[in-house]
Amino acid sequence: MPTQHEPVPRDGQQERPQQHARHRPRVVLGVSGGIAAYKACELLRRFTESGHRVRVVPTEAALRFVGAATWAALSGEPVATEVFETVHEVPHVRIGQQADLVVVAPATADLLAKAAHGLADDLLTNTLLTARCPVVFAPAMHTEMWEHPATRENVATLRRRGAIVIEPAVGRLTGADTGPGRLPEPEEIFAVCRRVLARGLAGMRADLAGRRVVVSAGGTREPIDPVRFIGNRSSGRQGYALAATAVARGAEVTLVSANVALPDPAGARIVRVGSAEELREAVVAAAKDADAVVMAAAVADFRPVRRSAVKIKKTDAEPEPIVLTRNPDVLAEICAHRARPDQVIVGFAAETDNVLANGRAKLVKKGCDLLVVNQVGEGVGFESPSNEAVILGADGSQTPVPYGPKETLADTVWDLVAQRLG
Fold this sequence. Notes:
The chain is α/β, with parallel strands linked by helices. About 30% of the residues lie in helices and about 25% in strands. The protein folds into two domains: about 25-205, Rossmann fold; about 210-420, 3-Layer(aba) Sandwich (Rossmann fold). It is built from 13 helices and 19 strands. The longest helix is centred in the C-terminal third of the chain and has 16 residues, at about 405-420. The radius of gyration is 24 Å and the shape is globular.
């Protein structure tokens, strides 16, 4: 009889390492030959310090940038590049079979091409073929290489197969070049990997792979004068959690960010806005080819009719009243003018009283498919890493999400969106 440390594999399948309660997640960190290879050292440190067992598998070209001794010292594991090293252990099969996650950072254009076409000319590409766990690629290359049709097709192929290919960051590249192709920051790549590992076997499905989603986040600001504005308490944490979890589930994410002071989530295209009018313009444009739109931003309902061109001075006289006018209702607009009938639209309702009653009324009025209703107030909902809510569906469904990390609420939202996307 098996002991509690030897669970019986279900459905005749090979036992997965993560079935062990005391198992240290096994991560394979693939490193291909780009200048950004040095950043993988920081990613490796984050994995090892958080309790993961990491095997680094570099390509021969990667070792021209960071030597094998560095990888071995930082990981505490042997380092090999060829299938004929320690051949008695059959590493080209075993490493991939035993992994809970494979992440390649940086992933060069050459590596992406080999992975897309199933080439296996070294230990890393063999590992990618034998892996039966989630696979994450973090590309890094020059802009021209990233935008080349061959690379775009290879990325699309990998995504269709369920791999998670993170969009590269925009910034300074090798030399004086600037543009898309920069490796995202290691802490942001780690955040994506952490979300994938948290989903366990469900993370293998990458159920949003090939989907384009738009998320709005933060709070709009409506200027009164050059230094003052009407705003709200939204920190953008929930919207950023939605963007990060969507990336970890394989989606192409456009994040419309209104006045947020948080690190950009790796893999998301960021569009920065300030006012409700700017947010409307960005969301409407991005929604045209989106499979799903999640309006998590706190959009101001009103704005001043007039904006002073200079700072309003304090005098002995009482200030002039500020006359307000309505802002556009972005959620209602995109619901009324969907890009296509099967587009899924999610709204948020921040309420202080009569939470569910107000939420149900808003769901009908706006015409969205799902409405996330939560209570807000001093220290509740806004400016907090945690949240609780009820997700109302136009089909009459009601999904409560207990108090917990905002990533948990985000994953529940995407679960419901994925069901509706089929």
